[in-house]
Design goal:
With about 350 residues, the protein is of the alpha/beta class. The protein contains 13 helices and 14 strands. About 50% of the residues are buried.
Length: about 350
């Protein structure tokens, strides 16, 4: 099968499909497995057409058993394959949690480097699509806490394509969190560009506040930076891309310039990635900070019914309110305290 190379307009979902196709073409050891990924093409149609082109022995429909999917991938990796698993929805990953944290993450260490686990686990994550319970979770902190795993998340079609190819080529196990509400966002994709699953990207330069986020919220942060600019506030937006390990060098350079840090993610606040980023940046940049780091996150409750998710998810107004807090301007917290 001939490789097709081009720069073209793709949605984020199509960019992932293109990356999977390229990986299947370039390496016979790459296999895909997951629930409904073959004939149906996945619930989001991200794997559409791949089984028809590569066969059911390389694009495999799995039973509804995430522990079985991950366990099978471990055996395949032992035999030299590069399995790419799809977890149908974020909230379905927990039945495979034991295999991921007790086996996938530890086998390279346990065998003193004799065994590698080049497994990529794709996880559509986050809210914003009006889904039912267990379909809008943000479980990334569980896996970022687990040594031995890479955890990454793209925010745009270009990164979705190149980062997934890099993840599949990596000898490390990678949790690849895909922001499902961005699946239909379009962008220009250079399918031959190199992938980077290690470094954060400065997607908007600024001088007053550093705003750090990832996944679906990057687009919201860019909108916040544009809105703030109309009021004379310059926000530097950083897309983490890699959630574990985190590129703290890029964050440190930015915070030393701006003196202020705002972190935003959809997941609940307590013990989330925002807490680790706030603590680590404070340790590195304490003498440069004009204000304590500010977190703008989901609330410390189970994910709500879809009718309430707009209140749960950080939006432009909440991000700008966090920026106001970092700038010591009037904000929702000062307004609330003034009314006590």
């Amino acid at each position: 099968m001939m490789l097709q190379t081009s720069t073209r307009q793709l949605t984020l979902g199509q960019a992932i499909n293109s990356a999977l196709r390229r990986a299947l073409q370039e390496d016979d050891k790459v296999l895909l497995l997951g629930e409904d990924i073959g004939k149906l093409g996945g619930v989001f149609r991200v794997t559409d057409g791949l089984q028809a082109d590569f066969g059911s022995d390389r694009v495999m429909d799995a039973p509804l058993a995430e522990s079985g999917i991950i366990g099978t991938a471990v055996g395949l990796a032992y035999r030299g394959y590069r399995p790419v698993c799809e977890i149908q929805f974020d909230g379905f990953i927990y039945p495979g949690f034991d295999q991921i944290v007790a086996q996938v993450a530890k086998l390279h260490y346990r065998t003193q480097g004799a065994v590698r686990m080049p497994i990529t686990i794709r996880v559509p994550f986050g809210g914003g699509i009006g889904a039912v319970e267990h379909h809008s979770e943000s479980p990334e902190a569980y896996f970022a806490h687990t040594s031995g795993l890479r955890v990454v998340s793209p925010s745009n079609p270009q990164d979705a394509h190149t980062m997934l190819r890099a993840a599949i080529a990596s000898d490390d196990p990678v949790l690849f969190f895909e922001p499902k509400r961005r699946y239909w966002a379009k962008g220009t994709v250079d399918e031959d560009a190199p992938g980077d699953i290690e470094h954060a990207a400065v997607v908007a330069e600024g001088t007053d506040v550093t705003l750090v986020t990832y996944g679906a919220l990057v687009a919201v942060a860019i909108d916040a930076a544009l809105a703030a600019a109309e009021d004379g506030v310059s926000i530097e937006v950083i897309d983490l891309r890699s959630l574990s390990p985190i590129d703290f060098d890029t964050l440190e350079r930015s915070v030393k310039k701006t003196g202020r840090l705002v972190i935003s993610h959809e997941a609940q606040q307590f013990a989330g990635l925002g807490a680790e980023i706030a603590a680590s940046v404070t340790e590195r940049c304490f003498d440069y900070l004009d204000h304590a780091p500010v977190r703008v996150t989901g609330f410390d409750t189970p994910y709500p019914p879809s009718a309430l998710e707009d209140h749960f998810l950080p939006d432009l107004d909440r991000m700008l309110d966090g920026v106001d807090r970092a700038l010591r301007k009037p904000n929702s917290l000062t307004d609330w305290r003034a009314g006590e």
